[in-house]
Design a protein that fits this description.
Elements lengths: L12 H14 L3 H15 L16 E11 L8 E8 L3 E7 L9 E6 L8 E14 L2 E11 L1 H11 L2
Antiparallel strand pairs: 1-2, 1-4, 2-3, 3-6, 4-5, 5-6
Helix pairs in contact: 1-2
């Protein structure tokens, strides 16, 4: 991790001596010991969630929902089976058969039913990544782009449960 900032603070002589003693015992610099103590404190207070910045706007929910994927706005409307493995208000991650044809930056449609729902949701998505996963499966990461209000509202209610 790159350290770009210097922090100076006042403290008592006893505290400085105690920190120097810990640093000597652990054969680390005083700066390193203080940084470790601060990180541990922030994690304990749940202020520091992660050192890595989360890029997603909405939290993901792990699921296992059967789905059908089809090419949106295409003459070819063949349904490909798949499984949604996580979902959020922003998008989904789907496992599809390796031989299914899905291109990055393409628009696809998905058709799936949420637990305790009878009517399937039809959501349009833009594919952001296609990653070979296992021998016979690939992962598709896609964001929702054009969905009807009722479907989006049902999804939102499901995710906040």
């Amino acid at each position: 991790m790159r350290k770009e900032l210097t922090i100076c603070f006042r403290t008592s002589d006893d505290l400085r001596t105690s920190l120097e003693k810990i640093a000597a015992e652990e054969r680390r610099s005083l700066s390193s010991v203080i940084e470790t103590i601060l990180y541990d404190f922030l994690k304990q207070k749940k202020v520091l969630q992660s050192l890595k910045k989360e890029r997603r706007r909405y939290p993901r929910k792990p699921v296992s929902l059967p789905t059908f994927v089809y090419k949106d706005n295409s003459e070819e409307q063949a349904l490909q089976p798949g499984t949604i493995v996580d979902i959020s208000l922003g998008g989904i991650r789907i496992l599809i058969p390796y031989d299914a044809r899905v291109d990055e930056a393409a628009n696809i449609g998905t058709l799936f039913t949420l637990p305790n729902e009878k009517i399937p949701l039809k959501m349009q998505c833009t594919v952001h990544r296609v990653i070979p996963s296992e021998e016979d499966v690939k992962e598709v990461g896609a964001s929702f782009v054009d969905s009807d209000f009722v479907s989006y509202q049902k999804l939102q209610n499901y995710l906040i449960q």
